[in-house]
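Work Package 4 report. The design task specified in the project plan requires that, given a folded chain encoded as structure tokens, an amino acid be chosen for each position. We show below one input record used in the internal validation round.
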């Protein structure tokens, strides 16, 4: 089996020799050159599995080589060599298509980890797909053929090829975690762990221990060593959901961990190197929080190297039918029943609805409709869509209503539509439970719904 090949482009002889020796010990074949022109000639002569290029070269810039390789040899990962602290150059390189960057003076351990990850990516690109896609393209989990979603898919495919931190923006319920998982699954870290964490769900006083771990006896209650989220994500991806919820004191510690690529557990003496790709998301306007002093600007620039916006459902209404069908099929699989069929009026009502809660709200609406519908078909009334003011058309007029969402009597009810419906449901469920002597299976049968649907309604209505 022939050795894998690496091209090193740097005008400093010491750096070229260091990389040549280090990579040679990893049983790699290395070609080293000192200019853009020499690099172009080398690329014309052979194919490389990996390329390292300095940012500043005598006859041009490393940025030129990154763009050239991205265009002519997209299967070859490129890593930029930057001066220490030159974040702007690293960011530009990553946006141009670089796989990662390494700062001078070069840390040999970090370099070796970067090389292993890059070569794995190179092999997968040549094979035409990542190892995680062997059972099917993971991007197929992102439902929708609208132009907005096609753009999101294309961006995900590009982001999966490098190691840049990605900030995923979008409203609640649009599927930011799904996007993060796809970036992970389509990249070279697919075989490593994907560790999602909701930053708003961790108590402030426990955050440092949760992120970085602790040593036994480091504080009251620390009865044993515990690894943190960074260590748990070693070799994989750490997804920080609702990152805007991090308190300022934790933002400082997180910034250091990202910069140093190492963490120090509470009570520990030494820092532990970590190899983690960082993805983050929030439904809030992070840039506005920076302006207000609620989020550190330096951390914002670190996690927001590349931004990916996930569009709300109202901006891709054409995807609603496919999404609804997919969700109904999932619900049928979970309940063991048949797939519900949306009647034309019900589908039209969904396509007209604004969906302030996005895909998550669509899931909840369809689960409720499946529970309330008679048989396998779902009517517009089964959706129980909240009352709303009609949308205006481009000429300023309001479109005709698609379907009535509830009886007229509900509109006259002082509690509103939701309370009206809930009271009817509550009375029917309580009566069925009483008649079946609180046998939930029998009550569900009497109501004509599944046991799972009954449990959902009991929890929703707060019935013990």
């Amino acid at each position: 089996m022939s050795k894998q090949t690496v091209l090193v482009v740097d005008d400093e002889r010491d750096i070229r020799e260091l990389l040549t020796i280090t990579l040679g010990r990893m049983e790699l074949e290395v070609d080293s050159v000192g200019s853009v022109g020499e690099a172009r000639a080398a690329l014309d002569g052979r194919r490389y599995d990996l390329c390292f290029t300095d940012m500043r070269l005598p006859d041009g810039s490393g940025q030129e080589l990154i763009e050239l390789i991205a265009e002519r040899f997209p299967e070859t990962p490129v890593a930029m060599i930057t001066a220490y602290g030159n974040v702007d150059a690293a960011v530009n390189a990553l946006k141009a298509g670089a796989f990662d960057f390494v700062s001078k003076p070069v840390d040999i351990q970090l370099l070796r980890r970067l090389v292993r990850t890059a070569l794995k990516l190179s092999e997968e690109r040549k094979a035409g797909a990542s190892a995680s896609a062997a059972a099917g393209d993971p991007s197929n989990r992102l439902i929708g053929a609208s132009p907005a979603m096609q753009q999101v898919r294309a961006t995900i495919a590009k982001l999966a090829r490098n190691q840049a931190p990605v900030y995923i923006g979008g409203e609640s319920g649009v599927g930011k975690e799904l996007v993060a998982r796809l970036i992970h699954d389509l990249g070279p870290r697919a075989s490593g762990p994907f560790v999602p964490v909701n930053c708003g769900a961790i108590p402030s006083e426990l955050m440092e221990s949760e992120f970085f771990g602790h040593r036994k006896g480091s504080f009251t209650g620390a009865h044993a060593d515990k690894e943190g989220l960074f260590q748990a994500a070693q070799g994989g991806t750490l997804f920080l959901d609702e990152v805007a919820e991090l308190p300022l004191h934790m933002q400082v510690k997180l910034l250091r961990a990202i910069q140093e690529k190492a963490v120090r557990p509470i009570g520990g003496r030494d820092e532990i190197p970590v190899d983690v790709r960082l993805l983050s998301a929030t439904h809030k306007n992070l840039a506005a929080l920076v302006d207000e002093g609620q989020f550190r600007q330096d951390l914002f620039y670190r996690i927001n190297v590349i931004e990916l916006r996930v569009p709300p459902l109202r901006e891709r209404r054409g995807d609603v039918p496919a999404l609804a069908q997919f969700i109904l099929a999932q619900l049928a699989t979970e309940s063991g029943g048949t797939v519900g069929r949306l009647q034309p009026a019900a589908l039209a009502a969904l396509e007209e609805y604004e969906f302030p809660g996005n895909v998550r709200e669509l899931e909840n609406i369809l689960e409720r409709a499946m529970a309330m519908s008679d048989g396998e078909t779902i009517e517009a009334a089964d959706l129980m869509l909240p009352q709303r003011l009609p949308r205006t058309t481009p000429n300023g007029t309001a479109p005709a209503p698609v379907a009535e969402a509830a009886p007229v009597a509900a509109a006259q009810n002082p509690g509103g539509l939701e309370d009206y419906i809930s009271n009817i449901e509550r009375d029917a469920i309580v009566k069925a439970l009483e008649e079946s002597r609180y046998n939930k299976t029998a009550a569900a049968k009497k109501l004509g719904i599944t046991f799972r649907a009954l449990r959902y309604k009991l929890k929703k209505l707060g019935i013990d």
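The chain has four domains: 5-127, 138-311, 313-405, 411-464. Validation will be extended to a larger panel in the next phase.
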